[in-house]
Amino acid sequence: MTDIKKGLAGVYVDYTAISKVNPETNSLLYRGYPVQELAATQPFEAVAYLLWHGGLPTDDELAALRATERAHRGLAPEVKAAIDLLPTGAHPMDEIRTAVSVIGATETAGITNVLDAVGTPAENLERSVRLFAALPAIVAYGQRRRRGLDPVEPRDDLDYSANLLWLTFGEEPDPVVVDAVNRSMILYAEHSFNASTFTARVVTSTLSDLYSAVVAAIGALKGPLHGGANEAVLHILNEIGDAANVVPWLDEALGQKRKIMGFGHRVYKRGDSRVPTMKAALDMLIAHYDRPDVAELYETLEREFVSRKGIYPNLDYPSGPAYNLIGFDVLTFTPLFVASRITGWTAHIIEQQSANALIRPLSEYNGPDERHVPGYVADAAALAVADRPEESAG
Ligand SMILES: CC(C)(COP(=O)(O)OP(=O)(O)OC[C@H]1O[C@@H](n2cnc3c(N)ncnc32)[C@H](O)[C@@H]1OP(=O)(O)O)[C@@H](O)C(=O)NCCC(=O)NCCS
């Protein structure tokens, strides 16, 4: 019997030097640094640099990255035009997927030999920084469009996270809120071979270009078992409404075998290493907005669910209510994840290119036995092919 690893669970498919998830010690390291130390001390731009280059930037290196990032912050006219063509009811993940496609088509226009589209590592680093710079304006544009608001021009005097808030709300961002967004961006940036990153690596392994890999990754992230969970958490919290409703709601939901979004993880089985840092950021926001009711609902659901199932919250559980308190639309939550994870995805794309092997697993066939189309008469050429000892298939 073939040993099938459904969902590739427990399978090691390659090496990576970008991050290490250790469920035994409940830790997550980016290039060797514990993520909670990075979230407490670094601006997101420095963590992006770390993921791409392998070490934290010097002051000059950080200044250079910031200068490039600030120079590419605007919403390109062709991107705006493409989003405007979509129905206003389009999911923002579809807007972002479209936007990245348009950027890719624009930046690779004129490359007629498919072998050249993949780009050099240096070109792909530049492409990565430009996508990193462009995404906040795209995310913010989606939210403002849904609210019938005009876009806001980016501000050169603000760091990445403050500018993201400015672009979304058009108001001077509060330092507490900037800090919470900065921490969430760092926590969401990278997580080894998760589904969307692996998707990006699969596409890259065919020698396709960085934009195609990112578009595919966005599609994978949209699903509620992956990035879409932060949105789904808010739907659940809204459905429950109040801490007093948790017990009857949970009894019914578990009776119906519903999955409770924001809990459980494929790798972490004793708690997600990122949760305490994001929960601390959520607590800061709860104090800032004076919303003890949010804390009560959050903690009651966590306590009740963990005591019944022994399954712990993942990062989406605290980040959903945090983004909600800040004023992001629920539909904007997964796009914010994209704005962050673009750093991890692109670091993996570049790493995959540096030691590439086409990713092509095997499947065990369990369909009907060979059978024949009525009336078909094999010709000599087909019989000759069938006689070859081994034939590889794409
Ligand atoms: C993330 C997730 C897909 C990991 O799943 P996995 O390792 O493949 O584990 P499974 O989905 O097979 O779950 C194993 C068992 O735990 C249960 N379980 C896991 N997560 C659960 C949840 N959030 N709510 C209720 N039950 C859950 C499953 O129903 C299953 O029970 P069973 O053995 O009685 O059938 C899963 O925990 C989940 O769907 N969580 C909710 C979505 C989410 O928050 N995703 C974001 C991840 S960062």
UniProtKB/TrEMBL annotation:
The keyword rRNA-binding does not apply. InterPro entries: 2-MeCitrate/Citrate_synth_II, Citrate_synth-like_lrg_a-sub, Citrate_synth-like_sm_a-sub, Citrate_synthase, Citrate_synthase_AS, Citrate_synthase_bac-typ, Citrate_synthase_sf. Keywords: Acyltransferase, Transferase, Tricarboxylic acid cycle. One of its GO terms (molecular function) is citrate synthase activity. The keyword Acyltransferase applies. The active site is at H265, D316. GO terms for cellular component: cytosol. It catalyses: oxaloacetate + acetyl-CoA + H2O = citrate + CoA + H(+). Pfam families: Citrate_synt. Pathway: Carbohydrate metabolism; tricarboxylic acid cycle. One of its GO terms (biological process) is tricarboxylic acid cycle. Belongs to the citrate synthase family. This is Citrate synthase. It comes from Microlunatus phosphovorus (strain ATCC 700054 / DSM 10555 / JCM 9379 / NBRC 101784 / NCIMB 13414 / VKM Ac-1990 / NM-1). The lineage of its organism: Bacteria, Bacillati, Actinomycetota, Actinomycetes, Propionibacteriales. The gene is prpC.
